[in-house]
Amino acid sequence: xxxxxxxxxxxxxxxxxxxxxxxxxxxxxxxxxxxxxxxxxxxxxxxxxxxxxxxxxxxxxxxxxxxxxxxxxxxxxxxxxxxxxxxxxxxxxxxxxxxxxxxxxxxxxxxxxxxxxxxxxxxxxxxxxxxxxxxxxxxxxxxxxxxxxxxxxxxxxxxxxxxxxxxxxxxxxxxxxxxxxxxxxxxxxxxxxxxxxxxxxxxxxxxxxxxxxxxxxxxxxxxxxxxxxxxxxxxxxxxxxxxxxxxxxxxxxxxxxxxxxxxxxxxxxxxxxxxxxxxxxxxxxxxxxxxxxxxxxxxxxxxxxxxxxxxxxxxxxxxxxxxxxxxxxxxxxx
Length: 334
What we know:
Blueprint: E1 19-25, H1 29-46, E2 50-56, H2 63-70, E3 75-78, H3 85-95, E4 100-105, E5 108-110, H4 115-119, E6 127-135, E7 142-144, E8 148-152, E9 155-159, E10 169-170, E11 178-182, H5 183-188, H6 202-213, E12 216-227, H7 232-257, H8 261-278, H9 285-295, H10 298-311, H11 316-333
Parallel strand pairs: 1-2, 1-4, 2-3, 6-12
Antiparallel strand pairs: 4-11, 5-12, 6-7, 6-11, 8-9, 10-12
């Protein structure tokens, strides 16, 4: 009689033992006064080992002295000169000791039980990032949810951010103001790309690079935060400049990452060139400022595009289809 072979059981997946929370700050003492205690409360509620790291990007408003006096148990990393959001995140993640790193903006106030729902997903080795649900202060309005991509007049945009909040789902990107990353893979990807400096779209980019590697990015609605969205950059530079930088980086992201001919040429490039040729008729001057701001980055964009092509294991079309179908199925269940 031939003995029947019994397949070996795969070892149980384990939730990471240490979670690191990294908060970036630039002249945000008022945000820290309002929100940092909630972060400490959430870490305590989590039950497992945590560490909280605040990276101060050369604040001049007394943030560092406040942190040292009021939160001496918090690890503090101080930049002697302002280096920007991406660099501050990089400093914090390199200093972190946890397998999972949770990035929080200083204007984010987490609910007490927000941490465990994020961290549990990293028992699955395919998961790169998990984004939290952002709600209004009265907990009624959803601000950030699942990000489902589509193109409109040449621009990559996102829908269903507010409607799909009924369960875990794949998302195009996890919002960088309240997200958990697998630390070693974040470091492997080199962190946020400086091509998006000073900020905006770097979180979209790193999530998409992960999708292209075959890793997954998820949305977890059981993890909730209140995001005041009173960012320091907007306060310092105004709404108009902020909008132009955001719009410029929308172009940069598409040029760097979209390689499928349907998405790049048909959905993006042709409508964009038409709008560039005729935008003066409607005096859309901010569009031109954003577009030509992106054009000035073309040498870097071309270099990044070539590198991204070499690293990609999954096509644009596969990623788009997976996220759109996942969100549709989720809406049906809801």
